[in-house]
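Q: What does the assembly look like in three dimensions?
Context provided by user:
Components: two
Sequences:
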Amino acid sequence: MEDDFMPVRISVNGVTHRLFLETRRTLLDVLREDMGLTGTNVGCEHGSCGACTVLLDGKSVRACLLLAVQANNHEVMTVEGLAQDGEMHPLQQAFWEKQGLQCGFCTPGFLMTAYELLQQNPDPTEEEIRFALSGNTCRCTGYQHIVDAIRSAAQAMQQQASVTTPSGTTA
Amino acid sequence: MKPSRFSYFLARSVDEAVQLLAEQGEESRVLAGGQSLMPLMNMRLARPSALVDLNEIGTLAYVRPWDGGVALGAMTRDADLEQASLAAERLPLLVEASRQVGHPAIRNRSTVGGSIAHADPAAELPAVMLALDAELEARSASGSRTIAARDFFQGPFETSLVPGEILTEIRVPGLSPRSGSAFMEFARREGDYALVGVAAVVALDEDGTIASARLGLCSVGQTPVRPTAAESLLKGKRPAKDAWQAASEAVVASLNEPPSDIHGSADYRRHLAGVMTRRALALAAERAERNR
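A: Here is the predicted structure of the complete assembly.
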């Protein structure tokens, strides 16, 4: 078969990767095996559990249901892209403080799903959070602390935004 | 849990896509949103020899006005349909149902055309298109044709598309005045496949009686189901509890093969179909009253 390999250029967390890939490989496997980004976890591999959730051009997707070649010339963000300059993202901070994780396997998927939610809706209600999280499975926490963590992160991010965005008088 | 080998082709246009499908033969498959095909490939339940990827054909993703209703490009993503103000204004049923397709991260990829062409009897949009009398446009290397939704769904995962054909557009006529619609489903978890889902459209006459009622059910048979006997019962009736009751009994009586699995027995699904039909009709009629 001559069409089962393809050169690709994929930007992941702002870094451009040029690879020559077998077309049948999923983005999930290429992130982990070729780029060493093992934060994105392999769960069910059929789109049900959400452990492999990443952002493609800013939108949450299942990395197990995307061929890596489909990410050619697109931008991917994984959980490794959340922390900046060694500082945890407010979502990560809140998951830690509110015990939003136990074994941690599902956590990267929850973080990326929550990241997209807060981009679209900076002040979600509990119901909106639960609706957004409906596609992510956690077998440890019972979800309550995850919901608490996301509410807390939303508050922290709004406070941060009001401090760092000068309103004219406080600048 | 990894796909088997295949040749991959990224189509840049519909013309190119149908040409590629014709060249690659019957074992090739179209890759739309991939939210059903990719799981099947990961589990090796599907082993296509070649994939023709439609995801970069921008001209296949749109929501446009058509005949008082809307025309949807087959590659319109469910998340985009969910946000489409034209659809919300003309056919809110589409928006209400698309919100219940899978989970947010699924809807960011899944497409309207993909869901219809995949023809999962448990999927929402096929039942909705059946209830809304949609017409479907198919293209192949040898031309195009229009297929009515009622002629499209042939069996579980089986449609009247022939090898080499691609679903390109879904056209949904607008509703008559004094109409209301509702989509309701019962699932064990938000976003999971429905145990039963019901789409209902009720149009009222000037005197407030029912001019017409249309229904589409998912997860209750081999295909999405349009219970026409129940629909005709409602014509001319007052929109009230006894009418919903009679219609839901007719729906239950018409279901001969609801699936039975660990999530619910056939009898339970039959029961749920009655309950959800009553509720969906009542809500659709209530919304129709508001549009009078």
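Follow-up: Chain A touches chain B through 35 residues (CB under 8 Å).
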